[in-house]
Amino acid sequence: MPHNALYSKEEIEKQVDVLARRIAKDVGQSPTILVGLLNGSVVFLSDLMRRLYLYGVAPEVDFMVVSSYKDGHSSNGTIDIIQDIRSSIEGKTVIVIDDIADTGLTLLEVKKALAKRNPAKLLTCVLLDKPSRRKFDVKPDYTAFTIDNVFVVGYGLDSASRFRYLPYIAVLSE
Ligand code: XMP
Asked: What are the pLDDT digits (tens) for 26-56?
């Protein structure tokens, strides 16, 4: 078990609340859809959407599965959309929700793909950001925690499909 808790359940709850307030203030009553990237965002998204509702936002929710391919050491890469959203995003405020921004490839490419579908506004929100690892030019609009270059698990994040269920975020020490 990873025991090095980086952020406790309580700290995460507090930060999700702070984010939900900020997002609610920014999106107001505009039609809003959360697009969660599976599997990593599932715990974060389910807490965030209920917090948003508390602050007056009633978002639609849909999910995407993508896999990314990085091109060696260069800043090139691509993603495959394995499973697309079924909702239309035209004219809506879209908030892409992911677990972590690492090189930035996933967020950048998902943004490019969704931008073609005429959303009113296209925003990104991550639980964790590792800016020291960035290779692609993208900055999440909302970040709960900024971390160093460590491998973390829990609260949706996994290592070989383990630890997603942990209620806290831990540094994997194996
Ligand atoms: P990119 O490079 O596209 O990658 O920004 C985002 C994806 O990388 C995975 N990732 C991690 N997963 N602990 C994890 O469990 C980590 O510390 C970590 N760092 C990157 C994750 O799948 C994320 O969606």
From this structure: 999 999 999 999 999 999 999 999 999 999 9
Cα of 115 from ligand 1 centre, angstroms? 22
Residues 6+ apart with CB under 8 A from 61: 33, 34, 36, 45, 49
Catalytic residue among 47, 98, 99, 102: 102
129 is catalytic: no
Please tell me the distance from the alpha carbon of residue 37 to that of residue 85, in angstroms, as a whole number: 10
Q: Where are the domains of the chain?
A: 8-168
Q: What architecture (CATH level 2) is domain 8-168?
A: 3-Layer(aba) Sandwich (3.40)
Q: Which residue's CA is the closest to the ligand 1 atom numbered 4? A: 102
Residue to substitute in 100, 126, 168 for testing ligand 1 pocket (most ligand atoms within 8 angstroms of CB): 100
Nearest protein CA to atom 8 of ligand 1, as residue: 102
For residue 96 and ligand 1, the question of a CB distance below 6 A is answered with no
Distance CA 158, CA 155 (A): 9
Quick one: which H or E segment has residue 17? Answer: helix 9-27
Q: What is the reported pTM?
A: 0.96
